[in-house]
Amino acid sequence: MIPFNVPPFTGKETEYIKQAIDSHKICGDGAFTKKCSAWLGERTGSRVLMTTSCTHALEMSALLCGIKEGDEVILPSFTFASTADAFAIRGATLVFTDIRPDTMNIDEKLIEQAITDRTKVIVPVHYGGVGCEMDEINALAEHYGISVVEDAAQCSQSFYKGKPLGTLSRFGCISFHETKNFSMGEGGALFVNCESDIETAEVIREKGTDRSRFFRGQVDKYTWQDAGSSYLPSELCCAYLWAQLELADEITAARVKCAQTYRSELADLAERGLVEFQHIPDHCTCNGHLFYIKAKDLGERTALIAFLKEKGVLAVFHYVPLHSAPAGKKYGRFSGRDIYTTKESDRLVRLPMYYGLSESDQAYVIECVREFYRNR
């Protein structure tokens, strides 16, 4: 079976984990954690706080935005539950909007009609490392005095008009889950893009204390300052991640090449109208996080996934729209009409994509897809 995903591994991970163990510093904010946050900060220009997950980075954003019961948060329904959870647990009402069928991102033209006097945050989700239309979203947010939190979980090394995704709004949240381009098993990071938020973010991350200021010598002792939690990842996790950040450009290039190969080798199917690809706008640079094709409808997608499995290829669909889920109905509502969210998500098939996918295995996947459509 050709798997859908294999977590990235460069060969240095075990060596670095042993170094962390030997240093007798395996809790948060050790040498490897600092290396990872410094590397990300240099690449993005943001103040970077490593977290235990992208979910926790989103939760920190909700706290920093002051989300409370009765507030409203606008987000796409086509996303993972974490995007919604971070705000639902603070008591917010989730206002789901429809997506653009070409990128699977939130339709920026539908956001304004979802805004009420209770709207506190807009959460654009950059699906597959392709940026949402952030200029329009940010202009709208500024006009109404609303914060923007980018769910950039899939976006390491992706750009919008030359700027890293996750750096274009008040907060950006990225993931280092095992399915992402760079992984620490479970983990993430919060990009803090406004100077005025940095100190509060550090306090929330450090269980509500000013411990970070203490270690910088800014106070002679640290104390409990505000409500917070423990969002620091283990040093062992960051040691694993550091091995991949050292080869970040190589890993990204390999994934981009893989995506380009899928696109070029299946292009004739798209030209004949049998499948569709994700549109990547000219002003967006994508990191090759995933590659999908869209089948004609749910029935064809189901048949394609089953056919590939019979051939030894594991392909998968993606999100079940949140507004159709029990929790989505409990915590939110859909703004306007669901024209594309359900229809397009029902068609989507993700093909195997990971660092180390061999050319021969990828060629086999491509041939299997082509065989399915020949038979139809």
Question: Could you characterize what this model shows?
Answer:
The model has no long low-confidence stretch (mean pLDDT 97). The protein is built from 14 helices and 13 strands. The strands form three sheets. The protein has an eight-stranded mixed beta sheet with strand order 1-9-8-5-4-2-3-12, with helices on both faces. Strands 7-6-10 form a three-stranded antiparallel beta sheet, with no helix packed on it. A two-stranded antiparallel sheet has the order 11-13. It is globular. Helix 4 (81-88) links the parallel strand 2 (72-76) and strand 3. The chain folds into two domains: 13-245, Aspartate Aminotransferase, domain 2 (3-Layer(aba) Sandwich), CATH 3.40.640; 248-375, Aspartate Aminotransferase, domain 1, CATH 3.90.1150. It has helices at 13-22, 31-44, 54-64, 81-88, 134-144, 198-205, 211-215, 235-245, 248-265, 267-271, 298-310, 326-331, 341-345, 359-375; strands at 47-51, 72-76, 93-97, 119-122, 147-151, 159-160, 163-164, 171-175, 188-192, 284-285, 292-294, 332-334, 348-350. With 376 residues, it is of the alpha/beta class. Helix 1 (13-22) packs antiparallel against helix 8 (235-245).
